């Protein structure tokens, strides 16, 4: 199940996306990362593996569709948020046990100051 939450916090807009269902398939991410030369077989840090999803062109999809497999996704979101002065972080919701066990995660995006204020001003003016 994916849950979203949006709330103002300390002058920023905080957005939380929580996947407490099937989570990230770290084994598949690692396998694709190894095939593309982005990670070594002996890499055992789950966060290093998870962060591969932010690589430009990275995809674990078997085939290309209108919404997946093109490798445009998390990297584009991260660049957009960071270019607006925001922060982007991923955290696991359970302790790591194995690359073979999908792990639930939460993505937290914080948009600070001017980008958030500008959006509020535009909405209030409408």
Low-confidence spans: pLDDT under 50, at least 5 residues?
A: none
Principal-axis shape equals globular
* Sequence of strands across the biggest β-sheet: 1-2-4-3
The overall pLDDT, averaged over residues, is 82
| Strand and helix order | EEHHHEEH
Query: How many strands, which pairing sense, and closed or not: the largest β-sheet?
Result: 4 strands, antiparallel
Estimate the strand proportion. 25-35%
Structural descriptors:
4 strands; 4 helices; alpha+beta; 4-stranded antiparallel beta sheet
Secondary structure layout:
Layout: E1 2-9, E2 12-24, H1 26-35, H2 46-50, H3 74-83, E3 87-92, E4 103-112, H4 113-125
Antiparallel strand pairs: 1-2, 2-4, 3-4
What does this structure look like?
The chain is an alpha+beta fold. The protein is 30% helix and 29% strand. The protein has four helices and four strands, in the order E-E-H-H-H-E-E-H. The protein has a four-stranded antiparallel sheet with strand order 1-2-4-3. A hairpin with a 2-residue loop joins strand 1 and strand 2. The chain is globular, with a radius of gyration of 16 Å. The termini are far apart. The model has no long low-confidence stretch (mean pLDDT 82).
């Amino acid at each position: 199940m994916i849950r979203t939450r949006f709330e103002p916090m300390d002058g920023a807009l905080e957005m939380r996306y929580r996947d407490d269902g099937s989570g990230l398939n770290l084994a598949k991410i690692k396998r694709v990362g190894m095939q593309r030369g982005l990670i070594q077989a002996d890499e055992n840090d789950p966060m290093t593996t998870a962060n591969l999803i932010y690589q430009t062109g990275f995809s674990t999809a078997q085939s290309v569709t209108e919404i997946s497999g093109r490798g445009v996704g998390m990297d584009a979101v991260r660049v957009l948020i960071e270019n607006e002065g925001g922060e982007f972080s991923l955290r696991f919701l359970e302790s790591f046990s194995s690359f073979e066990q999908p792990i639930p995660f939460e993505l937290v995006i914080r948009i600070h100051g001017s980008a958030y204020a500008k959006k509020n001003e535009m909405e209030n003016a409408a």
